[in-house]
Specification:
alpha/beta, TIM Barrel, 2 domains, eight-stranded parallel β-sheet, 18 strands, 22% strand, globular, binds fe (ii) ion
Length: 415
């Protein structure tokens, strides 16, 4: 006897199969103790949230709201709050967002812990979340120096200290350093630290509308020089939305050659970038569609959930994919499927999870059953996650809402 069989499971390639699970892994077959007929619904490996500031989630309004909506006011509000945060407060809020995420099919998260300033509560709280919630969700923690490492005495040492505490990735924010020379120095320092401590790299890079912000090319060069292809991620990269065509195409080639992953965070960047422009306003997104065409791996993050930068959000990565699709013109049928891959398997590549990710015999039985038959319908409807399975166990089940108009059911589908 095996633990579970899903019958009539539709995969991304359109095939309909039976999926068998035993001992927490996908297996080839057997007599199941439990069967779920998923009736032709789409089954994918889990959603992967590649970028989430879990230490700031659910703090919206503390100590005040970001009324201007700018990145800078958000950083100031956060700067006022963070000295008073405790490890337990960070843990409780972050754990709640991990529960929201898992309930909606996100079972892998890369979180960012702010390590600027004296308070270690953010990194300690998120390391506890990573370790204590590992059964529910696989979490990687990045040490993220929100205020840079050269603007204030001691912040460079604090970044290194966070690495010693056990984070998975070294972060940076070169465009936020006081000068571009210090930004360059920061990128090189992040690579040195990552190499020295055998960690991955995930840098907030060129998160600005300034077309002169060009630290991504430095990251590409350092990735090649240090031989770190596949272990380096550049997040946000919104200045790409303002680069002119010649430089853009040269840069995309560099990124491809370096094997850098790019993470797009549609929520904050759709509200923050271009905000100060007169009309016409820029979109301020990384060149997602063009990067994919070049062969660069791109994935998605929620980034901000009810925090000083964004008062909305509910940890739904399909919602993020829906928004990214609009801002990057990814509306062709195959492009829509690719956008769902950016939220799933491409995210797994960014986090270098391939050994434990995917619907394949022998791999951990993690998957999501959407209440829709294909990627287009998943994103159009932002479909209910009917069942979420983690290590072979159904951990979340959602009953789709039912709408009736004058007593007759409305399905919002064409059939
Ligand atoms: Fe971010």
């Amino acid at each position: 006897m095996i633990d579970l069989t899903l019958t009539n499971a539709r995969l991304m390639d359109g095939s309909v199969v039976e999926l068998h699970v035993d001992g927490g892994r996908f297996v080839s077959g057997g007599e199941p103790r439990r069967t779920i007929d998923v009736e032709g619904r789409l089954v994918t490996p889990p959603l992967v949230d590649c970028h989430l500031h879990l230490d700031a989630s659910l703090t919206v309004g503390r100590p005040r709201f970001n009324e201007s909506g700018t990145l800078i006011e958000g950083i100031h509000v956060w700067g006022e709050l963070k000295p008073s945060l405790t490890e337990q407060d960070v843990f409780d809020r972050a754990a709640e967002i991990v529960r929201w995420s898992a309930a909606q099919g996100t079972l892998f998260i890369r979180a960012h812990a702010d390590v600027s300033g004296e308070n270690e509560a953010m990194v300690r709280g998120l390391l506890r979340v990573r370790d204590e919630l590992a059964e529910l969700c696989t979490i990687q923690v990045t040490a993220f120096p929100q205020d840079g490492i050269y603007a204030r005495e001691g912040d460079e040492e604090r970044l290194e200290n966070a690495i010693r505490l056990g984070v998975d990735c070294v972060g940076g924010i070169p465009h936020y350093e006081p000068t571009s020379e210090l930004g360059l120095k920061e990128v090189h320092r992040v690579f040195e630290l990552a190499k020295q401590h055998h960690r991955r790299i995930d840098v907030h890079c060129d998160e600005t509308d300034d077309p002169a912000s060009r630290f991504l090319e430095v990251m590409a060069d350092d990735t090649v020089k240090h031989g770190l292809a596949g272990r380096v991620t550049a997040s946000h990269c919104t200045a790409m939305g303002s680069y002119e065509p010649y430089y853009s195409s040269k840069l995309r080639g560099f990124l491809k050659r370096a094997g850098i992953n790019v993470v797009v965070n549609p929520y904050a960047n759709s509200l923050i970038q271009g905000r100060l422009d007169p009309y016409p306003k820029r979109r301020g997104f990384a060149q997602l569609k063009e990067l994919l065409a070049e062969g660069v791996n791109v994935s998605l993050g929620n980034d901000v959930i009810m925090d000083p930068w964004y008062s909305l959000g509910k940890a739904d990565l399909v919602d993020a994919a829906h928004l990214a699709l609009h801002f990057t013109y990814m509306s062709g049928r195959e492009e829509i499927a690719e956008m769902l891959r950016c939220a799933t398997e491409r995210g797994a590549r960014t986090l270098a999870l391939e050994d434990e990710y995917g619907i394949e015999e022998g791999k951990p039985a993690d998957c999501v059953v959407f209440d829709a038959p294909d990627a287009l319908e998943v994103i159009r409807l932002r479909a209910t996650r009917r069942w979420v399975i983690r290590r072979g166990r159904v951990i979340a089940e959602t009953t789709p809402a039912e709408t009736r108009l004058d007593g007759r059911r409305v399905t919002f589908t064409s059939n």
